[in-house]
Amino acid sequence: MSYNRRACVSHRKNLDLFHNIKKPTPISKDTVNNKQFHATHTYNQWHNYNKKHIYSNRLGISYDVSYLANGYKYLHMYKDRRMYRKRLDNFCSHHSDSSKRSIKQKSRFQRACRSIFYNRGNNKKSHHSVDNLEDKLHRARQHRFLFLPSQHINKPIQHLKYHKRLVLRDEIYYNFPIPPESLGTRAANTWHDKLGIWIPNDLFPYVTDEPVYISKRQAKLKGQQYAPGSMDWLKGIRKRKEAHELAMRQQNDRDASEAARLLYEEELSTRAKLWGTSSNSIEYREEMTKDLTNFQEHFHKKITTLTDRRTVLQNRIKQGKSVYKSNKQLLQLEQELGLFKIDYFSVMDDNAYHYRYKGHTSDDTKKLEFRPHKRPPTSSTNTDRHVTHIKKLRSDTLPTEDFKVFTSP
């Protein structure tokens, strides 16, 4: 090939096709063209940070090509064993002048863009154009095509791959240089003395003497196992880690639930002591008291409107203002007061949980709620009369000693 270019290993047999050029470059018989040579050359390009500037006379565009090494993340997260990837960036178009060459180059480039954005290929069902920039960038990544200055594309190199087992990541197992472990492999791994392999730090605590079987059936039969260090073996260890983390999360949830329950019971116990009842009855007592208070406030609001109206009518009668009309309204109002009644459950919700309270009061609750000095409830139904209970009546007669003092001469 011209300009001392070399074909890859797969196309080495076709080199004779390119000898019919005007100025052929003689190929030396000492030229080495094998995988080791290409791997070493790629390694040097990456290690020396070399960038190659590509210019297309046909399309009138240019871009840079550099080599990047795939580190730990590509191997263990993406399951990608390829060593290197090409980075295409720094795109620039040269269609500024109005010469015939520039016009033709621009026309060819636009035709290439339409071919990419129209999803070129033999499958006509997938031929549909895209309009937005996001879809265009997606098509360009699929076809490794640059059309914007801010765009970059990573193109993996297929013919240089790591071995499947991590133990073979060392350079001694290859006949060409490879990227060092400092990219993230050895720094993020720990050497297992018994297995003789490097294991990721996050998986190392879960590596035990128990093997990783290829299936559940083989695990029951104690049969076929994955080789330690293989990708499937690491995948099994990662599943073991995920199962352990799931069990830990569930245990933490149970512990948190138990702690919340104990805290709630302690709060109930504190409230029950203030109410003089048990923890089992405190919520029932509180809700019943709240409903009774709300009902009394509602009753007071309704009855106050009627009593205030009665006071106004009585004052008007005393002042002699519209006596006939006021007496008639007062009589009607007294009838309303006589018939005034509010159903308790018309205000309260009888479907509340404390109204569905079943069973009798427990002995512990009865003991806590026992009031030996509590006043007996009044049996009077007169709402206008205030009944007071006198604990001890005062005698009208003086005691004998006092009587002697006042009657002595």
TrEMBL record:
Domain of life: Eukaryota
Chain residue ranges for the region called Disordered: 364-388
Protein name stated in the entry: DUF8211 domain-containing protein
Pfam families linked to this entry: DUF8211 (PF26638)
Residue intervals of the DUF8211 domain: 38-178
